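Task 17 of the worksheet. Students: predict the tertiary structure of the chain below and write it out as structure tokens. Keep your answer in the requested format; marks are given for formatting as well as content.
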Amino acid sequence: EIPSPINPPSGCHFHPRCPIARKDLCDVEPPSLMDAPGGVEHQAACWLRAGDRAVATG
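Model answer:
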């Protein structure tokens, strides 16, 4: 379900529908925009970037 733009969820706006979101992190603090791993010109605002998923969900 897409959250309301008038009343977005706390923390990361995607955490309610993210399969790897971590309670007490993603639902509390919004992530900063940072360079994505791999050295390509791409940025992401995610606490659990692709390179960190094994540790974060493991």
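Marker's comment: The two ends are 26 Å apart (CA to CA). The helical segments are 53-57.
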